[in-house]
Amino acid sequence: MAAVNNQKKCCYCGGCPIVCPVQAIELVDERIAIDREKCTSCGNCVKLCPVGAMSLER
Prior knowledge:
- The chain has a single domain, classed as Alpha-Beta Plaits (2-Layer Sandwich).
- Helix content is 17%, strand content 28%.
- The chain has helices at residues 15-19, 44-48, and strands at 2-5, 25-28, 31-34, 54-57.
- The chain has a two-stranded antiparallel ribbon with strand order 1-4. A two-stranded antiparallel sheet has the order 2-3.
């Protein structure tokens, strides 16, 4: 499993890169980039997301 970002819902608040313990999430230009190989599926980004744009998928 790994974090996934729904770009249509995302408000680009910048919170998910901050709470990611393995630095698998970056805000690049105007989008969220997720390194699926680094992601440990901890769910911190999902819990934090104020608009429900983050989820965990296989």
